[in-house]
Each structure stands twice: as structure tokens, then as C-alpha cells.
């Protein structure tokens, strides 16, 4: 016995800026609409919704896969969700205008995507460029570090001009003890 009557997968894999990705194509809005529609229809205990990583079909996204039927929907929009839920998930009738039945094209596109990704990773590794996730983490600290640096400059300048930590703290609306520790 299966724990759920049906299982729906939606890719929400993000890509670096400028690359086609499902979130860029609206997959998160589709996901939210699906969750709302399932709850509204009382199906959220019968249909499991799972986000997944890259399916290799970004240009066709958002892509939604339904199991146990194995139906792949492509180019799904938020406004398509009620039709998919009512027709497919409730009545068992595939929404043919969104169903992608060309398995040869799907395979070719996914393989091309995989090969392109592998070549990109190989080139990045050979040139010594930092991995995307590490670059993103570093970028995440940049703006906050710039603000902290500006604050440090203000504190250090005021202290160098003879102001006490208490005076600086009062001026920048901060705790005197913390300002003293920073100075």
C-alpha cells in the first residue's frame, strides 16, 4: 500500500544569474498554487508534493511530474494548476495540452543539459574558479561586511579624534560596552 494516492514532483533548482531555471520560469508560484489548490480541494493528505533538483529540462519549465502515472507536464503556469488538480489529480484525466509525451526529445534535452553542465564544471575546475555555492556564500557576506566596515570607520575615526567609546556609542545609537569592545 502506498502512503499517498499520488506524488507530484516540481523542480525548484535555482541556477546562477542569467541561466534558465525553473524558479526563473515561475516554479515557486506553481508550487504555491498547487499546495493551495490541493488544500482547498481537501487533497493535501492524499497527494504528496515534493520539490526536487534539476531535471535537465529548464527550457521546458516549470516541469511537474505526477506518479504513479508518470505524466510529465511542461511549461506549467500558476493558472494551469486548478485544471491539473481537477482533471488529473481528482478525475484521472491527463491535461493533454500540458503533458509532454515526447520521451526522445526529453531524453535528448536532458542529456544535452547534463553534458553542458559537466563541461562547465570541468572548465571551472581547470581554471580554479570557486564553486557556485562558495561564491554565493561569499557574496552573501559582502554587503553586510561593507556596512560593518563603514561603521568601523565611523567608530575608529571618532575615537581617533579623541571621542570616548561612550560618546561614540551615544552618537551612533549603540551600546557603550559593545562600542568600547569594538574600539
How does this model look, in words?
The structure is a single chain. This protein is an alpha+beta fold and 183 residues long. It folds into 2 domains: 122 residues, Glutaredoxin (3-Layer(aba) Sandwich); 51 residues. The protein is 54% helix and 10% strand. It is built from 7 helices and 4 strands. The chain has a 4-stranded mixed β-sheet, with helices on one face. Helix 6 packs across helix 7. About 5% of the residues have low confidence.
Keywords:
single chain, 183 residues, alpha+beta, Glutaredoxin, 2 domains, four-stranded mixed beta sheet, 7 helices
Strand numbers in spatial order across the main sheet: 2-1-3-4
CATH class of the largest domain: Alpha Beta
| Terminal CA distance | 66 Å
| Unreliable spans | 18-22, 144-148
> How many domains comprise the coordinates?
2
Task: State the secondary-structure class.
Answer: alpha+beta
* Secondary-structure element order, N to C: EHHEEEHHHHH
Say which CATH homologous superfamily of the largest domain is assigned: Glutaredoxin
With helices defined by DSSP (H or I, 4 residues minimum), what is the helix count?
7
Helix and strand layout, with pairings?
Elements: E1 6-11, H1 22-25, H2 27-41, E2 47-52, E3 64-67, E4 71-73, H3 81-90, H4 103-127, H5 132-160, H6 165-172, H7 176-182
Parallel strand pairs: 1-2
Antiparallel strand pairs: 1-3, 3-4
Give a brief outline of the structure.
This protein has 183 residues and is of the alpha+beta class.
Amino acid at each position: 500500500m502506498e502512503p499517498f494516492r499520488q506524488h507530484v514532483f516540481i523542480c525548484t533548482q535555482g541556477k546562477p544569474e542569467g541561466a534558465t531555471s525553473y524558479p526563473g520560469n515561475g516554479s515557486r508560484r506553481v508550487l504555491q498554487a498547487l499546495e493551495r489548490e490541493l488544500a482547498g480541494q481537501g487533497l493535501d493528505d492524499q497527494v504528496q508534493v515534493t520539490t526536487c533538483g534539476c531535471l535537465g529540462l529548464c527550457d521546458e519549465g516549470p516541469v511537474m511530474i505526477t506518479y504513479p502515472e508518470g505524466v510529465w507536464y511542461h511549461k506549467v503556469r500558476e493558472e494551469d494548476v486548478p485544471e491539473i488538480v481537477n482533471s488529473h489529480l481528482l478525475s484521472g484525466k491527463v491535461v493533454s495540452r500540458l503533458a509532454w509525451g515526447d520521451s526522445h526529445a526529453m531524453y535528448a534535452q536532458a542529456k544535452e543539459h547534463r553534458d553542458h553542465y559537466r563541461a562547465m564544471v570541468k572548465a571551472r575546475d581547470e581554471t580554479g574558479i570557486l564553486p557556485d555555492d562558495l561564491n554565493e556564500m561569499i557574496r552573501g557576506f559582502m554587503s553586510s561586511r561593507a556596512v560593518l566596515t563603514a561603521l568601523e570607520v565611523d567608530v575608529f575615526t571618532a575615537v581617533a579624534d579623541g571621542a570616548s567609546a561612550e560618546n561614540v556609542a551615544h552618537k551612533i545609537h549603540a551600546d557603550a560596552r559593545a562600542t568600547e569592545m569594538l574600539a
